[in-house]
Amino acid sequence: MFAGVQPLLLVGAGKMGGAMLEQWLRRGLRAAETVILDPLLDEARRTGLSKAGAIVAGKAAEAGGRAYKCLVLAVKPQSMDKALAEVAPLAGPQTAILSIAAGVRLATLEAAFPPRQPIVRAMPNTPAQIGRGVTVAIANAHVAESKRVEIDALLAAIGKTAWIEDEGLIDAVTAVSGSGPAYVFLLAECLGEAARRAGLPAELAALLGRETVAGAGALLAASPLAPDVLRQNVTSPGGTTAAALSVLMAEDGLQTLMARAVEAAKRRSAELG
Length: 273
Known about the structure:
Layout: E1 8-11, H1 15-26, E2 34-37, H2 43-51, E3 55-57, E4 70-73, H3 80-87, E5 96-99, H4 106-112, E6 119-123, E7 133-139, H5 145-156, E8 159-163, H6 170-178, H7 180-197, H8 202-222, H9 227-234, H10 240-248, H11 254-272
Parallel strand pairs: 1-2, 1-4, 2-3, 4-5, 5-6, 7-8
Antiparallel strand pairs: 6-7
Helix pairs in contact: 6-11, 7-8
């Protein structure tokens, strides 16, 4: 499944890089042909990966000497310039570069490598930790169709994938799906706090907030129905849900607030680039 992307070099094994790596290894990525470059990796993770057969390096010099088919850049945007300077020499002419750094443009990545380097920019999200992420990707003009299929297999291992042709859409993608899980977690927090203020014991309130959001998300994932239909199915005219939705769907309600939040995240993504 992953033969076309190995040997693979993963630069950065933090929360997102580590989550992707875990799913890849579960789905057949060969540990012996996987090199992880991360000087900040804690000793427990380093030992665990080494025992699994992966090669763990603390500096670029330790990761050299291999003809990598794929180089994955999973560092923070603020660290990208330094990372590119260190690892660009490790890529060969046919090495596919996959970057998941928010805000870092294809042009920035292309400038760090020789001309015609195949590069894919992608935006995954944290449900990748359980194989339920969604990733939107864009390839530069030098990614052959066969290489795109191989990269797609990597991304599909952590959830659903979609490809776009307009890089200008990535900032909006980042604001919606990249940052979106945090919005959902906040909803669970707020629902739990509202339950507490309504008089429920704190522990029960937190449980109801968490499990209601998780259960509704699972239903949404399993159902062929659109979100608005599922919402309507819960809402009886003149009932309790309708009373709550009259607040949430008011002119200054959740839709307006969510649009402002997404716009703020989109603007910040553009600034990072």
